[in-house]
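User: For documentation purposes, I need each entry recorded in a consistent format: the amino acid sequence on its own, followed directly by the corresponding structure tokens. There are two entries in this batch. Please keep commentary to a minimum and don't merge the entries.

Assistant: Recorded as requested. Entry 1:
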Amino acid sequence: MLRSDEPRIERMDPQDEVRSRGGVARVEALHRAGVSAHALRKAREAGGIITVRRGWVAVPDADRMLVAAARRGVVLSCVTLAERRGLWVLDAAEPHVAASPHSGHAKIARGTIHWRSPLFPRDPDRCEDSLENALVLIARCQPHEAALAVWESALRKGLVDAGILAGAPLPADARALLQAATPFADAGTETIFRTRLRWLNVQIVPQVWILGHAVDFLIGERLVVQIDGGHHVGAQRDSDIAHDALLRLHGYHVIRISYGQLMDHWPQVQSLILAAIAQRLHLAA
């Protein structure tokens, strides 16, 4: 038996346990893991742990977005979570969070709160939503082509299972995205390009391997479309130019467009594609 004058020995370091949970944690979860109230109090007094709000603590250098979510009683979700997972997102400048419809106390200084019950149960010990729930919110929150780009990015990276999503009672807008999404787009720009030309009665195939390199799109048999991103500089740009020349020597017609052209000058880009098709440049001689 421990005498009152003997020091208490704690078997679990509270700061390490909080860090293992992403730097922000519910006190209840820490207690379940074996962290005692005494250990938490000592860690607070030593400055190793700070109180975020009642029932939540964090390490001093914790992710500020997670701390803010815990403080406001919300979870990071929608495009904010997608961007944090490394998915292609058109615009995540403003934070998007989610809260239960019954959490009327939740408030944020700027951004969007999605007041919807989650399709997939949320872990009450986490400040981030599941990616599946985020995708469902994105389906309603974002324009179709931007939402489809995120869904395809998630499938491409293997971060969600299409079969599991298909078996869930998805809302109509989310189910339409699941049916339209493919795992082949390397970037959201490719999704947007393909979506904007889906009305064409011409075969458009993404990520085709031709003459030693993958091209973004092959329209018909001979029309190659390449979409440049920010990485098309230096050695990458030199390689692209060399491959373009090789494609032309083998009878392909190459149209290369920039991100700015795709997003800000689409009518001109579409006119260029249509003019090439009208000249039958997409067909083999």
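Entry 2:
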Amino acid sequence: MTDEPARWSQASVYPDMWVDPEDDPREGEGDGPEGEPATLLDFLSGYRMTLRMKCEGLDAEQLARRSVPPSTMSLLGLVRHLAEVERDWQNWIRDGDPLPQLYGEPDGDFLGAVAEQAVVDAAFRDLEREQAATDAALAAYPDLGERVGKDGTAVRELMVHRIEEYARHCGHADLLRECIDGRVGQ
């Protein structure tokens, strides 16, 4: 006997994939996006959707399950962390006082990721709200070379950094999900 979950996939055409390509909501029809801003937003959207896919079908206990001690990382923690990071990016764009942290203390995003449905629901609401707020703040600056905020960070740098952050954590989500039920990413 082993505690390791068996590897499995819901894909039927390519059993080593997460989902069949024709069922993958991240795959669009036709040509890819035109231009740099649309391409950056397309990649960001794909990673955001990937994170959601990694969390689908799991209950509060599974979402809050931590990886390997002493790490505090869990899928729910990642959702909360990315909501916190989205809020912080708004502070990079703003000239005024910074917005307060969502989860208070350092590492509060991960430490507060507990197996309660109310915490799960709140985390996804927080993430959606903060994503929308950051998207709206950046949409006011269509020139990717424009510098914003107190530090004069280029909009392009903020966009690329957002993609990098989601991509990095989607890799973590792949491993966390595989530990929970054996599903592997693509």
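Summary note for entry 2:
The mean pLDDT is 88.
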